[in-house]
Amino acid sequence: MKVRDLHGRGWPVFSFEFFPPKTDEGARALLNTVADLQEVWKPDYVSVTYGAGGSSRDRTIDVVTKLQSDLGVHTMAHLTCLGSTRAEIATIVDRLVDAGVENVLALRGDQPKDGPPLARGELAYANELIEMLHERWPVSIGAACYPECHVDTQDRDLDMAHTKAKVDAGAQILITQLFFDNERYFDFVRRARAAGIRVPIVPGIMPITNVAQVERFTKLCGASIPQDLLERLRRVADDPALVMATGIEHAIKQCRKLLEGGSPGIHFYTLNKSHATRSILAAVRRD
After folding, report:
1. Catalytic residue status for 102
2. Distance from the CA of 16 to the CA of which of 101, 114, 173, 252 falls in 20 to 30 A?
3. Dihedral of the CA atoms 102, 143, 51, 59 (nearest 10)?
């Protein structure tokens, strides 16, 4: 099923994001994790990320196709264009479509942390990739958006213009970067609607399970942590169980308020761990 068709049915859409493991053993463990989540919580779809510069391309394709064919899970494959030719991208999308994958999250991509930077490639920006996908394949196209601006673009108006360009090129759903202050999301949605963006804007939520990890992530992606939440986390930083409990509690409150405020669903950044996501979804779905 196409993700665009999951929205507008009158109830929230819940999705989980995973990253492709580096080993066959890790791939088997991930399939087991998704099977566990699927059996009990039945997410509407799952997405699988794409390493910087397409470094995990084959793993992403393998995992996505196995999730769909073996587990019957609706999937969305991440796809980046940085450093790739149009021919390379076409080969990848043909493989996905042939495997029955109907959804693609189109991204520019990041430079690898190790090794030389990638050349620009034939497609420099996500909107160019989206336009190519929209013209050539019958897939549902998602794109990323940034409630606190993209880390490379700290001009709110320019960042919104980039978001609008993705929608104008054919993106049918937007998924936000992680955030921990709901007002960031609601403000972004208000500004997006004022700019003429009408597609669903799905909040991306990452349960906090490790203080150092979340501080590193937020620094890399340009998101912020509310000071009161950060202080609570630092007070219990030496107790992993309390850190997880604090993170889960905050995410539950976030999700409840987001859904009450009209968000079309929740996209969970799981970090390939199911416990926190299960706990949050259990609390939210009881409401």
Report:
1. no
2. 114
3. -10
In this prediction, residue 118 carries a pLDDT of: 62
- The whole-number pLDDT of residue 98 equals 92
Q: Are 195 and 264 in contact (CB under 8 A)?
A: no
How many whole angstroms separate alpha carbon 7 and alpha carbon 163?
20
- Residue 168, pLDDT score: 98
Helices (H) and strands (E) in the chain, counts: 11, 8
**Inter-axis angle of helices 86-98 and 126-136, to 10 degrees?**
50
**pTM > 0.85: yes or no:** yes
User: Whose CA is closest to 44, among 68, 73, 69, 4?
Assistant: 73
Q: For 223, list phi and psi in degrees, rounded to 5.
A: -85, 165
For residue range 160-179, what is the model confidence (pLDDT) as tens digits?
A: 999 999 999 999 999 999 99
**Tokens 């507008």 sit on residue:** 8
Can you read off the two tokens belonging to residue 147?
């409630």
Residue 8 is encoded by which pair of tokens?
A: 């507008």
**Both tokens assigned to 82:** 């940085």
Structural tokens at position 10: 């009158």
Per DSSP, the three-state class of 80 is strand
Give which of 78, 56, 178, 210 is closest to 133, Cα–Cα: 78
pLDDT under 50: residue ranges of the chain: none
Q: Which of 17, 102, 131, 148 is catalytic?
A: 17
pLDDT value of residue 42: 83
CA distances (Å), 69 to each of 31, 63, 72, 286, in order? 12, 10, 6, 30
